[in-house]
């Protein structure tokens, strides 16, 4: 399988016999039909799970006289280093003429000064006798008023900025409507730290990010020496392997209230998410469209009137 594209980015055309694809991700591959004419297995199987689930299809040559036979091909199931090495080999093809982030070439992500580092650690815990999941010890709870409405109409008592720390606290998990303040057009480093035994997948609404580094064990400032600051792939969903970390760079150039969440849906529902409020003091329609006049209002926003343009 020759990899040619990852979520809109032309990649170096490396060849793989097996490719990891995680929740919320997509890749494009080319397969050359240059083998003897017969039927071949195509196999998809789960990774890092107690029970390995497998499904198969058949690649059929039009002049084949031989059906698929023999054992189903097995892929790597527990080798984290194998997956880390493959993920790091996904790199942007800088010689391709197709679109890529910042096609004008006015800046390069590896040359922009990072203004802030955010470290996020996921965890599982019992809170008030119920199973919950948390980020930096905060397990998210939905407010009675949508956050964007509360922010737009400046309604107090719905959320508070700074209700989640920039770094893991090691504290006992607790419930809160967690919102992190962020400044418009700042360049930020986010490190996802996973000390659990399952693969995590993270998604930030409204953004793509450059996946600059990942490794097993614990992240430290010295880990930056191994970052790819030249041709990292831009992605919308990022995997973090068991007992490992993944680092990304992101330009906060999209004003709004954006959800940062796990793609493990049960965990998201039970608190492994929060919101990033990217704010510009200009509050200009150049940076963010206003809420439509016919928007449905609820909670504490009921009865409010949308502000004129």
Helical content stands at under 10%
Radius of gyration: 22 Å
Shape descriptor reads globular
Percent in strands: 25-35%
Number of strands: 19
Mind summarizing the main beta sheet?
A: 6 strands, mixed
Q: Distance N terminus to C terminus? A: 52 Å
Mean pLDDT: 92
Tell me the strand order in the biggest sheet.
7-6-12-17-14-15
- Class of secondary structure makeup: mainly beta
Low-pLDDT sequence parts: none
The run of helices and strands is EEEEEHEEEHEEEEEEEEEEHE
Please tally the helical runs, counting DSSP H or I stretches of 4 or more residues.
3
Structure, described:
With 309 residues, the chain is mainly beta. It contains three helices and 19 strands. The protein has helices spanning 80-89, 147-152, 265-269, and strands at residues 2-6, 9-10, 27-30, 39-45, 54-60, 116-127, 130-135, 138-140, 160-161, 174-176, 178-183, 187-194, 200-204, 209-216, 234-235, 237-240, 244-251, 256-262, 273-279. The strands form five sheets. It has a six-stranded mixed sheet with strand order 7-6-12-17-14-15. It has a six-stranded mixed sheet with strand order 9-11-19-18-13-16. Strand 1 (2-6) and strand 2 (9-10) form a beta hairpin. The radius of gyration is 22 Å and the shape is globular. The mean pLDDT is 92. InterPro entries: Cu-oxidase_2nd, Cu-oxidase_C, Cu-oxidase_fam, Cupredoxin. Residues 1-64, 144-280 form the Plastocyanin-like domain. One of its GO terms (molecular function) is copper ion binding. Belongs to the multicopper oxidase family.
Can you tag this structure with a few keywords?
single chain, 309 residues, globular, 6-stranded mixed β-sheet, mainly beta, 19 strands, copper ion binding, 7% helix, Cupredoxin, 3 helices, Putative L-ascorbate oxidase, Cu-oxidase_fam, oxidoreductase activity
């Amino acid at each position: 399988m020759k990899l040619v594209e990852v979520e809109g980015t032309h990649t170096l055309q490396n060849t793989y016999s097996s490719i990891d694809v995680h929740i919320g991700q997509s890749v494009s591959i080319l397969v050359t039909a240059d083998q003897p004419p017969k039927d071949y297995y195509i196999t998809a199987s789960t990774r890092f799970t107690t029970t390995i689930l497998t499904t198969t299809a058949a690649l059929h040559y039009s002049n084949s006289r031989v059906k698929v036979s023999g054992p189903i091909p097995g892929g790597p199931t527990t080798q984290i280093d194998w997956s880390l090495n493959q993920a790091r080999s996904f790199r942007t093809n800088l010689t391709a003429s197709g679109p890529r982030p910042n096609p004008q070439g006015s800046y390069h992500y590896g040359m922009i000064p990072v203004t802030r580092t955010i470290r996020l650690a996921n965890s599982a815990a019992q809170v008030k006798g119920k199973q919950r999941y948390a980020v930096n010890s905060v397990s998210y709870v939905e407010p009675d008023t949508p956050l964007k409405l509360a922010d737009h109409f400046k309604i107090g008592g719905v959320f508070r900025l700074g209700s989640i720390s920039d770094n893991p606290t090691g504290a006992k998990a607790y419930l809160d409507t967690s919102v992190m303040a962020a400044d418009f057009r700042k360049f930020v480093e986010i490190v996802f730290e996973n000390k659990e035994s399952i693969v995590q997948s993270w998604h930030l609404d409204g953004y793509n990010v450059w996946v600059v580094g990942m490794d097993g064990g614990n992240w430290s400032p010295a880990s930056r020496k191994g970052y790819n600051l030249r041709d990292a792939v831009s992605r919308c969903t990022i995997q973090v392997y068991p007992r490992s970390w993944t680092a990304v760079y992101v330009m906060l150039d999209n004003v709004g209230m954006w959800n940062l969440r796990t793609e493990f849906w049960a965990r998201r529902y039970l608190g492994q998410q929060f919101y990033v409020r990217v704010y510009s003091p200009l509050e200009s329609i150049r940076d963010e469209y206003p809420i439509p006049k016919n928007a449905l209002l609820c909670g504490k926003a009921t009865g409010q009137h949308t502000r004129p343009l």
